[in-house]
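Appendix B, record 7
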Amino acid sequence: MNLTALKGNERVKEQLSQQERRRGLSHAYILSGPGGSGRHTLVRLLAAGLLCDSRGEKPCGQCGSCLKVGKGVHPDVSVIAGPGKGKSITVDQVRALRSDAYIRPNEGSRKVYLLEDADQMNASAQNAMLKLLEEGPRYASFLLIANNADALLETVRSRCEELDLLPAGRPAEAAGGPERSELVSRMANALEGTDELKLLEMAGEFTAESGRSAYPAERAGGGAVRQSGPEGRGEPSSAGGGAGKAAERRGPAQSEWQSAVRLAVRGNV
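Structure tokens (predicted):
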């Protein structure tokens, strides 16, 4: 897949290229990362790749579909954003999107929807989107742009493939030598095993050298850590209870802790 316009992010490029060669692109992606990570560049490349007329490498950048996507005038590409500055996509907008999705494409073989700030949608809008991700027509593709994928409902994330982007020039691997790389690996294993106590201990170890807290609420200046539930909701709990209280919170690793670990892995804490 031709993704040369995207700076850096070699792992994401390789992932998409292999996927396109083996089974074709997915019907839904979450593109997450901070400003300057290339999310909008990649979303345009994916839209062009999904609609490209070339029989060779896609997107070719030269066919009629690619040129229209590049100019923002392709009739089968829709950009969905909140109704005003600082406002998130509403449930009514998602319902309108769903109605439009069942109208067959105008020119291409697919219809592509780009959802801006998808992580800012409330639960009602996300649940309406979930139905579309599960039951939408085969020709419809959805590209969700987010700052923080952890803010999306787990049910929505499970129906999409996630592309985690970094600003160009930032190494994909954590710097600091073998010891730091080993710690990253241990954190990833703990995340898969949903062992929150280990996550807390290793996130603290990972960030000790910087003198900054691994706990999201402490970084924000608060006095409590919010334990999110499976749907991203939860109640504040004391951050000072130590390992004993962490051990009491057994079960799936929650989004706050996932965020802390991912931020540490990226080298942002």
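Remarks on this record: The longest helix spans residues 178-192. The first strand starts at residue 28 and ends at 32.
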